[in-house]
Automatic annotation (TrEMBL), chain A:
UniProt pathway annotation: tRNA modification; 5-methoxycarbonylmethyl-2-thiouridine-tRNA biosynthesis
Location (main, coarse): cytoplasm
Keywords: Cytoplasm, Nucleus, tRNA processing
InterPro entries: Elongator_complex_protein_4, P-loop_NTPase
Job of this protein: Component of the elongator complex which is required for multiple tRNA modifications, including mcm5U (5-methoxycarbonylmethyl uridine), mcm5s2U (5-methoxycarbonylmethyl-2-thiouridine), and ncm5U (5-carbamoylmethyl uridine). The elongator complex catalyzes the formation of carboxymethyluridine in the wobble base at position 34 in tRNAs.
Protein name (Swiss-Prot/TrEMBL): Elongator complex protein 4
Automatic annotation (TrEMBL), chain B:
Protein name: Elongator complex protein 6
GO cellular component terms given for this protein: cytoplasm; elongator holoenzyme complex; nucleus
Family under the similarity heading: Belongs to the ELP6 family.
Gene3D superfamilies on file: P-loop containing nucleotide triphosphate hydrolases
């Protein structure tokens, strides 16, 4: 039986991912060569991929595990979720993975041309070093006189620490050079083209666009041997699947446009079948969903339960927070709704629950949200209310660990 | 014997209880039918090995009948018309418009009906998790019917136990799910309700578990027995302790 994901787990046991049964490895020497662009997780031995944003990898517990689904709840104008989508694909190009891109809005060929360019090692390190020195020069201004007990405590890490060997940084202001993406194999699914090819078909009462997409994904996985069905294939590779704006009206689904949608189950059925396909192949998938448009919240609850990782983006554009001095350093908030527990009773949830993102100087980072201290002499009503709002956000956690009730006032 | 246990989680993940019951019943020598709808076989196998039970071995000796929902669904959709010995797929309801879980029930009944050569102690049905059936198009009534038929077959006729996991949420907008969960709560003999702490995320106490023994069902005019503990999940174990007495605090 073919082994899917090789991992140097304790006891030399290999994790079988296909329909084949679990197999114990006899000797570590017969381990398969690791797949490019992956690293095994310390927690559960599964292979991890980078999402393209190293700080997001940290938040997700190390990266996106092979065989899982990362669902992004789009921000209001889809700007930042689109960026994350591109980062995921760009990372696939840089690692040499195969890509499958599906969209109903723009042709995947055009999307590929607009992927951000990777930052070469030295320029990226220089940028980060600039950041670090800027911070350090403020700190060295003298030892503490009053709060001297805090002198020796470790400095606060604003951005989750990562090692830059896994994952890359990208320059959004430049597009990727054609040589890079021409060398990889990629498949595209552009809905208007696909619909014109064949007449409508329905499988299991699902929306025909979703059904067509599933068939397409299944065909690629089978034909290209990502599910281990071709034991001759020595060089294993990962398939990165990206689906843009799933659930929007352009996919033929009315859950975003109507309070009482005609077919409430199409999207959830799609996600379930997709989950089955992902679990049995060397692939990982990113899907963006315009969750803010879905009126029926029950659907989003079910969608969350059927996804492995769910991250919601809330941008400040157009909201009152844009001008709020509390958030002046950031462009939006990150809500981690779910982290998976894979092959284990526990999961790698990060301690930081309050996360914000910013896009500055070509780098997109997710950081711990720091609210500045409230130093106003008078208690201004607006700022207090805003603090209470943010505190409500702060007390909520991600679904993997327990979430408490609404904001409790001590 | 003949008990229906409901595992319920609110805003947290109660799947550690499923892993526990699976290894518990296998170690006790019961015949287990596990309807695993959300995760792959290898996921449960790896966790079960940490808890000291091998699912592959159990499957081989016929003690465990494992329905891997994800795989079964793929076979149904992309199986190119293969019929395994004429038996319909247990998840047939996904492709049929009639939201009828009869095929799934037949699967459960045939797996747990003892054959002549079986020497296992009582049968057990384990479902993880029931809320997925609603996402796949089954109506709440169909799901409740399915559970009812299973209770008759497994609990009454075969004197076995049933353990089912559901998700629920106080301010959930998923009315169908709440309907199913409330109905099941009324009919359960034992409810294990896992919740997050009211004060939010904590690294040392992952949540609280409410154990409700439905003594009131026995019509002896007694109230339900409720016990509340807090728990912390570790790599191979879950520790339970009285509220406020976490090791981190003491």
């Amino acid at each position: 039986a073919a082994e899917m994901a090789a991992a140097p787990a304790a006891g030399g046991a290999a994790r079988g991912r296909g329909a084949t049964s679990f197999q114990r490895k006899a000797a570590a020497g017969s381990r398969l060569a690791a797949v490019a662009g992956t690293r095994p997780s310390v927690r559960h031995g599964q292979l991890l991929l980078s999402s393209g944003v190293p700080s997001l990898d940290c938040v997700l517990g190390g990266g996106v595990a092979v065989g899982t689904l990362l669902l992004i709840e789009e921000d209001k104008y889809g700007l930042y979720s689109n960026l994350l989508f591109k980062y995921f694909l760009a990372e696939g190009v840089v690692c040499g993975h195969d890509l499958f891109v599906a969209s109903a809005t723009e042709h995947p060929d055009n999307m590929l041309k607009e992927l951000p360019a990777p930052l070469l090692d030295d320029t990226c390190r220089n940028e980060l070093r600039e950041e670090a020195t800027a911070v350090k020069s403020e700190d060295l201004q003298g030892s503490m006189k009053i709060a001297w007990r805090y002198q020796n405590l470790p400095k606060m890490e604003a951005s989750p620490t990562t090692s830059t060997k896994f994952g890359h940084y990208y320059d959004v202001s430049k597009t990727m050079s054609p040589e890079l993406y021409q060398s990889i194999k990629w498949h595209s699914f552009y809905l208007p083209e696909e619909l014109s090819l064949q007449p409508k078909m329905k499988i299991c009462n699902m929306n025909s666009a979703y059904a067509r997409l599933l068939q397409s994904i299944q065909r690629i996985i089978y034909q290209e041997g990502f599910d281990g069905s071709d034991p001759q294939k020595k060089q294993k590779n990962i398939l990165r699947i990206g689906i843009q704006s799933l659930g929007s009206i352009l996919w033929g689904d009315d859950i975003c446009s109507s309070d009482t949608p005609e077919d409430v189950h199409s999207l959830t059925k799609f996600l379930y079948v997709l989950r089955g396909l992902l679990r049995k192949s060397l692939s990982a998938c990113i899907i963006t969903v315009p969750a803010h448009l879905i009126q029926n919240k029950a659907i989003m609850e079910r969608v969350t339960n059927l996804s492995d990782m769910v991250v919601g983006l809330e941008s400040f554009i157009g909201s009152e927070r844009e001008t709020n001095p509390l958030y002046k350093d950031y462009h939006g908030l990150v809500h981690v709704h779910q982290i998976p527990r894979l092959n284990s009773l526990i999961c790698d949830v990060s301690d930081t629950k309050d996360l914000a993102f910013r896009l500055k100087r070509k780098l997109f980072t997710i950081e711990r949200l720091h609210l500045p201290p409230d130093l106003s002499d008078t208690v201004s009503r607006t700022s207090k209310q805003d603090l209470a709002e943010s505190a409500k956000l702060l007390s909520s956690g991600c679904g993997a660990m327990a979430i408490g009730k609404k904001h409790l006032d001590f | 014997q003949g008990k229906f246990t409901l595992l319920r989680d609110t805003r947290t993940d109660g799947s550690f209880l499923v892993h526990h019951f699976l290894s518990f019943y296998l170690r006790a020598g019961c015949k287990v039918c596990f309807v695993a709808l959300l995760q792959s076989f290898s996921h449960y196998n790896i966790v079960a090995q940490k808890l000291g039970v091998s699912l592959t071995a159990a499957k081989e000796r016929g003690q465990l009948v494992f329905l891997e929902g994800l795989k079964s669904c793929l076979d149904l959709l992309f199986g190119e018309g293969e019929e395994q010995s004429g038996q319909p797929s247990p998840l047939q309801f996904i492709s049929e418009s009639a939201s009828n879980l009869k095929a799934l029930f037949d699967f459960v009944r045939t797996s747990l009906t003892p054959t002549g050569s079986d020497s296992w102690k009582g049968p057990v049905l384990l479902v993880d998790d029931l809320s997925v059936l609603l996402s796949l198009g089954a109506t709440p009534v169909a799901v409740l019917d399915f559970i009812h038929y299973c209770r008759v077959a497994v609990c009454s006729q075969l004197k076995g136990n049933i353990v089912v996991l559901v998700h629920s949420n106080e301010d959930s907008e998923d009315e169908e799910n709440e309907l199913v969960v409330n109905s099941l709560c009324h009919h359960s003999d034992l409810i294990l309700w896992v919740e997050g702490l009211a004060t939010g995320f904590c690294k040392d106490v992952h949540g609280q578990i409410k154990i409700i023994k439905r003594v009131s069902l026995e019509l002896t005019a007694e109230q339900d027995l409720i016990q509340i503990y807090q728990y912390k999940i570790q790599d191979k174990n879950v520790t339970f302790f009285a509220r406020g007495l976490s090791a981190a605090v003491l």
